[in-house]
Task: structure prediction
Amino acid sequence: MRIFNRIILFILSGMTLGCNTINTDCATYDGQCNLLLTYLLYNPVYELRDCELLASDSYATWYTLLGSSDDDFVSDICGGRDRLFVTGSTNGIVSSAQGVTPISGYPTSPPESKIMVASYGSGGNMNWFRIMGPAGSGQGSTAIAATGDGGAVLLGNTAVDIPSIDGVTPLQSFQGSGEFIIIRFDKNGFVQWYTFFGGTGNDQPRDLIATSDGGVLVCGTTSTNIPGYAGLSPILPF
Result:
């Protein structure tokens, strides 16, 4: 029997952590499938301990699972106001989580990597989640940051154009074979704006922060020159 990755979230003494497990159902797999708390801080894969012990531990406020019947991976997690956000990728269909259906679901038959992003309340209840990316090519996310209005901004990568999301078209068009994608969500999980960034080669996003003036600072790597973007020229050329 194949064992799949699945995302698991913990709230530990006021600190939020995200990690990958290697079991399909952590709550019911013979009580032997959760990560050891201290080990999770250093290497969040493969160390397995009792679920029941974790659930009753005084340091664990709550924990929950998010994922499909195929491989799921977490890339980043952040807190903002009275909620937290988690993002990663999924290779399978997630039809519901905690009784919540996705704003946008898996677009094709698995397995094919797609961006997954979710919002939770402070008590672990799910506010919303969605899976994003067109059929025919893989997408993933690398970072997420909370914004002051209860929303979030996500940094990811895509190998193909995404012409619209929620009826919104990109601020800057897709240029190459692999680019940054930056997506701004409102507090209800709908896209306010999104844009692509990159050259004609392979571009790899790394991290982002949301700035106090409502902007976004992103970083990553590129394999080609980007001579101009949105009417700007680089301070230091390629």
User: Anything to note?
Assistant: Residues 4 and 71 are 5 Å apart (CA to CA).
